[in-house]
Amino acid sequence: MLNQDLRGRRALVTGGASGIGLATVTMLAECNAKVAMNHLEDDPAGREQVARLTAEGVDVISAPGDVGDPNDAEAMAQRAITELGGLDYLVNNAGMSGTEMPIPPSNLDMIDEELWQTLLTTNLISVFRISKAAAPALKEANGAIVNTASTAGIGLQGSSTPYAASKSGVVSVTRSLARGLAPSVRVNAVAPGQVETRWTAGWPEKHKQAALDKSLIKRHVQPEDVAQVIIFLLIGASMITGQTIVIDGGMTVS
Ligand code: NAD
Fold it and tell me: How far is the CA of 195 from the centre of ligand 1 (A)?
Protein backbone atom coordinates (compact mmCIF):
# COMPACT_ATOMS: atom_id res chain seq x y z
CA MET A 1 0.00 0.00 0.00
CA LEU A 2 1.24 3.51 -0.86
CA ASN A 3 1.58 6.02 1.94
CA GLN A 4 -0.74 8.65 0.38
CA ASP A 5 -4.11 10.02 1.39
CA LEU A 6 -6.18 10.72 -1.71
CA ARG A 7 -9.45 11.35 0.14
CA GLY A 8 -11.72 13.53 -2.01
CA ARG A 9 -9.88 12.60 -5.25
CA ARG A 10 -11.83 10.92 -8.05
CA ALA A 11 -10.35 8.56 -10.64
CA LEU A 12 -11.47 6.67 -13.74
CA VAL A 13 -9.37 3.65 -14.79
CA THR A 14 -10.18 1.93 -18.09
CA GLY A 15 -9.63 -1.82 -18.42
CA GLY A 16 -9.71 -1.95 -14.64
CA ALA A 17 -11.00 -5.48 -14.04
CA SER A 18 -7.66 -7.28 -14.37
CA GLY A 19 -3.89 -6.94 -14.56
CA ILE A 20 -2.34 -3.45 -14.52
CA GLY A 21 -5.75 -1.73 -14.40
CA LEU A 22 -6.92 -3.72 -11.39
CA ALA A 23 -3.64 -3.08 -9.54
CA THR A 24 -4.09 0.65 -10.24
CA VAL A 25 -7.74 0.70 -9.13
CA THR A 26 -6.79 -1.18 -5.95
CA MET A 27 -3.87 1.13 -5.05
CA LEU A 28 -5.87 4.30 -5.71
CA ALA A 29 -8.83 3.01 -3.67
CA GLU A 30 -6.57 1.87 -0.81
CA CYS A 31 -5.28 5.46 -0.72
CA ASN A 32 -8.93 6.54 -0.15
CA ALA A 33 -9.63 7.86 -3.66
CA LYS A 34 -13.07 7.19 -5.14
CA VAL A 35 -12.50 5.07 -8.24
CA ALA A 36 -14.66 4.22 -11.25
CA MET A 37 -13.51 0.90 -12.68
CA ASN A 38 -14.23 0.64 -16.41
CA HIS A 39 -14.68 -2.88 -17.76
CA LEU A 40 -16.37 -4.55 -20.70
CA GLU A 41 -20.12 -4.90 -20.06
CA ASP A 42 -20.01 -8.69 -20.48
CA ASP A 43 -16.81 -9.27 -18.47
CA PRO A 44 -17.92 -10.91 -15.21
CA ALA A 45 -14.57 -9.97 -13.63
CA GLY A 46 -15.66 -6.31 -13.66
CA ARG A 47 -18.61 -6.56 -11.28
CA GLU A 48 -16.89 -9.34 -9.28
CA GLN A 49 -13.86 -7.15 -8.60
CA VAL A 50 -16.02 -4.12 -7.74
CA ALA A 51 -18.03 -6.28 -5.29
CA ARG A 52 -14.83 -7.71 -3.75
CA LEU A 53 -13.19 -4.29 -3.31
CA THR A 54 -16.41 -2.76 -1.95
CA ALA A 55 -16.63 -5.59 0.61
CA GLU A 56 -13.07 -4.68 1.65
CA GLY A 57 -14.38 -1.21 2.51
CA VAL A 58 -12.91 0.91 -0.32
CA ASP A 59 -14.87 3.23 -2.62
CA VAL A 60 -15.04 1.66 -6.10
CA ILE A 61 -17.90 1.89 -8.60
CA SER A 62 -18.49 0.02 -11.83
CA ALA A 63 -18.18 1.89 -15.16
CA PRO A 64 -19.11 -0.65 -17.85
CA GLY A 65 -18.45 0.23 -21.48
CA ASP A 66 -16.39 -0.58 -24.56
CA VAL A 67 -13.61 2.01 -24.98
CA GLY A 68 -13.24 0.88 -28.60
CA ASP A 69 -16.76 2.04 -29.45
CA PRO A 70 -16.96 5.86 -29.81
CA ASN A 71 -20.51 6.27 -28.46
CA ASP A 72 -20.17 3.72 -25.69
CA ALA A 73 -16.81 5.14 -24.59
CA GLU A 74 -18.04 8.72 -24.35
CA ALA A 75 -21.25 7.72 -22.55
CA MET A 76 -19.26 5.58 -20.11
CA ALA A 77 -16.87 8.46 -19.32
CA GLN A 78 -19.72 10.97 -18.86
CA ARG A 79 -21.65 8.60 -16.57
CA ALA A 80 -18.56 7.86 -14.48
CA ILE A 81 -17.72 11.56 -14.09
CA THR A 82 -21.30 12.33 -13.03
CA GLU A 83 -21.33 9.46 -10.51
CA LEU A 84 -17.91 10.44 -9.14
CA GLY A 85 -18.92 14.12 -8.93
CA GLY A 86 -15.98 15.26 -11.10
CA LEU A 87 -12.62 13.84 -12.14
CA ASP A 88 -9.05 14.34 -10.88
CA TYR A 89 -7.31 11.35 -12.49
CA LEU A 90 -7.84 9.46 -15.75
CA VAL A 91 -5.93 6.26 -16.52
CA ASN A 92 -6.36 5.14 -20.14
CA ASN A 93 -5.21 1.57 -19.63
CA ALA A 94 -7.64 -0.68 -21.54
CA GLY A 95 -5.96 -2.51 -24.38
CA MET A 96 -5.84 -5.75 -26.28
CA SER A 97 -3.43 -7.72 -28.44
CA GLY A 98 -6.11 -9.36 -30.60
CA THR A 99 -4.00 -12.51 -30.77
CA GLU A 100 -3.33 -15.37 -28.36
CA MET A 101 0.29 -15.72 -29.44
CA PRO A 102 2.64 -12.99 -30.74
CA ILE A 103 2.57 -12.66 -34.56
CA PRO A 104 6.12 -12.39 -35.95
CA PRO A 105 6.65 -9.31 -38.19
CA SER A 106 7.61 -11.67 -41.04
CA ASN A 107 4.12 -13.22 -41.03
CA LEU A 108 2.28 -10.50 -42.98
CA ASP A 109 -0.49 -12.91 -43.99
CA MET A 110 -1.74 -13.26 -40.41
CA ILE A 111 -2.45 -9.53 -40.23
CA ASP A 112 -5.64 -8.29 -41.82
CA GLU A 113 -7.68 -5.06 -41.99
CA GLU A 114 -9.92 -6.18 -39.17
CA LEU A 115 -6.99 -6.62 -36.74
CA TRP A 116 -5.70 -3.15 -37.66
CA GLN A 117 -9.11 -1.53 -37.12
CA THR A 118 -9.74 -3.34 -33.84
CA LEU A 119 -6.34 -2.53 -32.34
CA LEU A 120 -6.32 1.08 -33.49
CA THR A 121 -9.79 1.88 -32.14
CA THR A 122 -9.29 -0.01 -28.85
CA ASN A 123 -5.67 0.79 -27.99
CA LEU A 124 -5.11 4.18 -29.62
CA ILE A 125 -8.21 6.16 -30.57
CA SER A 126 -9.84 5.27 -27.22
CA VAL A 127 -7.10 7.24 -25.45
CA PHE A 128 -8.06 10.38 -27.36
CA ARG A 129 -11.84 9.88 -27.21
CA ILE A 130 -11.96 9.30 -23.44
CA SER A 131 -9.49 12.11 -22.73
CA LYS A 132 -11.62 14.42 -24.87
CA ALA A 133 -14.79 13.44 -22.97
CA ALA A 134 -13.01 13.91 -19.63
CA ALA A 135 -11.10 17.10 -20.49
CA PRO A 136 -13.59 19.65 -19.05
CA ALA A 137 -13.79 17.83 -15.69
CA LEU A 138 -10.01 17.29 -15.56
CA LYS A 139 -9.35 20.97 -16.34
CA GLU A 140 -11.70 22.04 -13.58
CA ALA A 141 -9.82 19.80 -11.11
CA ASN A 142 -6.30 20.57 -12.41
CA GLY A 143 -6.07 16.84 -12.90
CA ALA A 144 -3.80 14.37 -14.67
CA ILE A 145 -3.92 11.60 -17.26
CA VAL A 146 -1.72 8.52 -17.56
CA ASN A 147 -1.91 6.30 -20.63
CA THR A 148 -0.64 2.71 -20.81
CA ALA A 149 1.66 2.44 -23.83
CA SER A 150 4.22 -0.41 -24.15
CA THR A 151 7.88 -1.00 -24.95
CA ALA A 152 6.39 -2.14 -28.29
CA GLY A 153 5.56 1.54 -28.80
CA ILE A 154 9.18 2.65 -28.43
CA GLY A 155 10.85 0.22 -30.78
CA LEU A 156 10.52 -3.31 -29.39
CA GLN A 157 8.62 -5.95 -31.33
CA GLY A 158 5.49 -6.48 -29.21
CA SER A 159 2.71 -8.94 -30.03
CA SER A 160 2.14 -7.80 -33.63
CA THR A 161 2.83 -5.02 -36.13
CA PRO A 162 -0.55 -3.28 -35.56
CA TYR A 163 -0.17 -3.62 -31.78
CA ALA A 164 3.26 -1.94 -31.87
CA ALA A 165 1.88 0.82 -34.13
CA SER A 166 -1.08 1.39 -31.80
CA LYS A 167 1.26 1.80 -28.84
CA SER A 168 3.62 4.13 -30.76
CA GLY A 169 0.47 6.13 -31.39
CA VAL A 170 -0.23 6.24 -27.66
CA VAL A 171 3.25 7.74 -27.07
CA SER A 172 2.51 10.38 -29.71
CA VAL A 173 -1.03 11.15 -28.49
CA THR A 174 0.37 11.50 -24.97
CA ARG A 175 2.65 14.33 -26.16
CA SER A 176 -0.14 16.00 -28.16
CA LEU A 177 -2.61 15.84 -25.26
CA ALA A 178 0.07 17.21 -22.91
CA ARG A 179 0.42 20.22 -25.22
CA GLY A 180 -3.31 20.55 -25.74
CA LEU A 181 -4.38 20.33 -22.10
CA ALA A 182 -1.54 22.40 -20.58
CA PRO A 183 -1.15 24.09 -18.23
CA SER A 184 -4.00 22.70 -16.14
CA VAL A 185 -3.77 18.96 -16.95
CA ARG A 186 -0.57 16.91 -17.09
CA VAL A 187 -0.52 13.94 -19.48
CA ASN A 188 2.04 11.12 -19.33
CA ALA A 189 2.35 7.47 -20.30
CA VAL A 190 3.93 4.30 -18.99
CA ALA A 191 5.60 1.80 -21.29
CA PRO A 192 5.71 -1.59 -19.60
CA GLY A 193 7.85 -4.43 -20.93
CA GLN A 194 6.47 -7.94 -20.54
CA VAL A 195 4.20 -7.92 -17.46
CA GLU A 196 2.89 -11.05 -15.71
CA THR A 197 -0.87 -10.70 -16.34
CA ARG A 198 -3.55 -12.96 -17.87
CA TRP A 199 -2.47 -11.39 -21.17
CA THR A 200 0.91 -13.16 -21.17
CA ALA A 201 -0.18 -16.21 -19.12
CA GLY A 202 -0.53 -18.45 -22.20
CA TRP A 203 2.63 -17.29 -23.95
CA PRO A 204 5.35 -19.89 -24.59
CA GLU A 205 7.83 -20.30 -21.73
CA LYS A 206 10.70 -19.38 -24.08
CA HIS A 207 9.17 -15.92 -24.62
CA LYS A 208 8.93 -15.33 -20.90
CA GLN A 209 12.45 -16.68 -20.30
CA ALA A 210 13.82 -14.44 -23.08
CA ALA A 211 12.37 -11.39 -21.30
CA LEU A 212 13.90 -12.54 -18.03
CA ASP A 213 17.28 -13.12 -19.68
CA LYS A 214 17.25 -9.55 -21.02
CA SER A 215 16.07 -8.04 -17.71
CA LEU A 216 18.74 -6.36 -15.59
CA ILE A 217 16.62 -6.80 -12.45
CA LYS A 218 16.07 -10.55 -13.15
CA ARG A 219 12.43 -10.83 -12.23
CA HIS A 220 9.19 -10.51 -14.18
CA VAL A 221 7.45 -7.12 -14.05
CA GLN A 222 4.29 -7.34 -11.91
CA PRO A 223 1.09 -5.28 -12.42
CA GLU A 224 1.81 -3.52 -9.10
CA ASP A 225 5.23 -2.35 -10.40
CA VAL A 226 3.41 -0.52 -13.20
CA ALA A 227 0.56 0.75 -10.98
CA GLN A 228 3.07 2.41 -8.63
CA VAL A 229 4.53 4.43 -11.51
CA ILE A 230 1.07 5.32 -12.84
CA ILE A 231 0.13 6.70 -9.43
CA PHE A 232 3.42 8.59 -9.09
CA LEU A 233 2.73 10.24 -12.47
CA LEU A 234 -0.84 11.05 -11.42
CA ILE A 235 -0.18 12.54 -8.01
CA GLY A 236 3.49 13.28 -7.47
CA ALA A 237 5.11 14.36 -10.70
CA SER A 238 4.10 18.02 -10.82
CA MET A 239 6.75 19.03 -13.42
CA ILE A 240 6.49 15.95 -15.66
CA THR A 241 4.21 16.09 -18.69
CA GLY A 242 4.27 14.61 -22.19
CA GLN A 243 6.65 11.84 -21.11
CA THR A 244 6.62 8.06 -21.42
CA ILE A 245 8.28 6.13 -18.59
CA VAL A 246 9.62 2.66 -19.38
CA ILE A 247 9.00 -0.07 -16.76
CA ASP A 248 10.86 -3.17 -17.94
CA GLY A 249 13.50 -4.04 -15.36
CA GLY A 250 16.11 -2.52 -17.67
CA MET A 251 15.32 -4.85 -20.58
CA THR A 252 15.52 -2.14 -23.24
CA VAL A 253 18.98 -0.98 -22.11
CA SER A 254 20.56 -4.41 -21.61
P1 NAD B 1 -5.23 -7.51 -19.12
O2 NAD B 1 -5.77 -8.29 -20.26
O3 NAD B 1 -5.30 -8.10 -17.76
O4 NAD B 1 -5.94 -6.06 -19.05
C5 NAD B 1 -6.55 -5.43 -20.14
C6 NAD B 1 -7.95 -5.04 -19.70
O7 NAD B 1 -8.54 -4.21 -20.70
C8 NAD B 1 -8.84 -6.27 -19.53
O9 NAD B 1 -9.53 -6.19 -18.29
C10 NAD B 1 -9.79 -6.18 -20.72
O11 NAD B 1 -11.05 -6.77 -20.48
C12 NAD B 1 -9.87 -4.67 -20.89
N13 NAD B 1 -10.34 -4.29 -22.20
C14 NAD B 1 -9.92 -4.79 -23.41
N15 NAD B 1 -10.59 -4.20 -24.40
C16 NAD B 1 -11.46 -3.32 -23.83
C17 NAD B 1 -12.42 -2.43 -24.33
N18 NAD B 1 -12.64 -2.35 -25.65
N19 NAD B 1 -13.14 -1.68 -23.46
C20 NAD B 1 -12.93 -1.77 -22.11
N21 NAD B 1 -12.02 -2.62 -21.58
C22 NAD B 1 -11.30 -3.38 -22.43
O23 NAD B 1 -3.73 -7.17 -19.49
P24 NAD B 1 -2.75 -6.03 -18.94
O25 NAD B 1 -1.40 -6.53 -19.21
O26 NAD B 1 -3.09 -5.59 -17.58
O27 NAD B 1 -3.04 -4.86 -19.98
C28 NAD B 1 -3.27 -3.52 -19.59
C29 NAD B 1 -2.58 -2.58 -20.55
O30 NAD B 1 -1.18 -2.82 -20.49
C31 NAD B 1 -2.97 -2.76 -22.02
O32 NAD B 1 -3.15 -1.49 -22.62
C33 NAD B 1 -1.76 -3.46 -22.63
O34 NAD B 1 -1.61 -3.13 -23.99
C35 NAD B 1 -0.65 -2.87 -21.80
N36 NAD B 1 0.60 -3.65 -21.76
C37 NAD B 1 0.62 -4.92 -21.27
C38 NAD B 1 1.82 -5.61 -21.26
C39 NAD B 1 1.93 -7.04 -20.74
O40 NAD B 1 2.96 -7.68 -20.95
N41 NAD B 1 0.95 -7.57 -20.03
C42 NAD B 1 2.99 -5.00 -21.74
C43 NAD B 1 2.92 -3.69 -22.21
C44 NAD B 1 1.72 -3.02 -22.23
Answer: 11
